[in-house]
Amino acid sequence: MASTSDIKNGLCIKYNHDIYKIIEFLHVKPGKGPAFVRTKLKSLTTGKVIDNTFSAGHKIEDIRVETHKFQFLYAEGDSFHFMNAESFEQITLDKKILDAPDLLKEGENVMVAINTETDLPLSVDMPASVVLEVTYSEPGVKGNTSTNATKPATLETGAVVNVPLFINEGDKIKVDTASGSYIERVKE
Asked: Which of 15, 31, 62 delimits the end of a domain?
């Protein structure tokens, strides 16, 4: 058993007969009244995100997890196939477990959290950023640059990201996997 002081991003807990992963949290100590922890929880079975508030000192049931490095092999409909980098064992995960499935490129390495009690995969942690090639983008028009102008660009995985006007087809860009936003252009 853990308490609210042990809450951190990525912690997996049992709550309301389901398993949740803590996405965001904030310890709040108002001037009046008791302290509490405001959290955003993502269900690892349905993918649904809920907001919840725990009072300070509240006991929470955490789940022991182990993380293993897996390589993304391929997607087949809503099923994503991964291979363990050490044992070469293959697993298939549902699309709703992934945080950013449209940014996952074949051969990409991810960390998979596995419940030690049931040996079932709970969640997939993507790298902080990925480098992807732009496959389609409208040409930027000169004169549209009075402010930080952006345009949509389709990436090699099919994801669409807003990029600055100077990005062209064939450019490689770095994308933040948490927000799905453009970070920078990558030079070879």
From this structure: 62
Same domain, 119 and 138: no
> Encoding tokens for residue 118?
């049931």
Q: In sequence order, what DSSP letters do the residues of 115-174 get, joined into one string?
A: ETTT--EEEEEPPSEEEEEEEEEPPPPTT--SS--EEEEEETTS-EEEEETT--TT-EEE
Q: Which domain holds residue 57?
A: 2-62
Burial of 40 (0-12, 13-18, 19+ CB in 10 A): middle
Burial degree of 140 (CB within 10 A; 0-12, 13-18, 19+): middle
Instruction: Please name every residue paired with 92 in a beta bridge, in sequence order, or none if there are none.
Output: 81
Quick one: which of 121, 101, 98, 104 has its CA closest to 12?
121
Angle at 87 between CA 81 and CA 92, to 5 degrees: 15
pLDDT per residue as tens digits for the range 120-162: 888 888 888 899 999 998 876 666 556 677 888 999 988 899 9
Instruction: Name the one residue in this structure whose structure tokens are 């609210």.
Output: 4
Report field, pTM of the whole predicted structure over 0.90: no
HEC string of 80-124 equals EEEEECCCCCEEEEEHHHECCHHHCCCCCEEEEEEECCCCCEEEE
Q: Looking at residue 23, what DSSP letter applies?
A: E
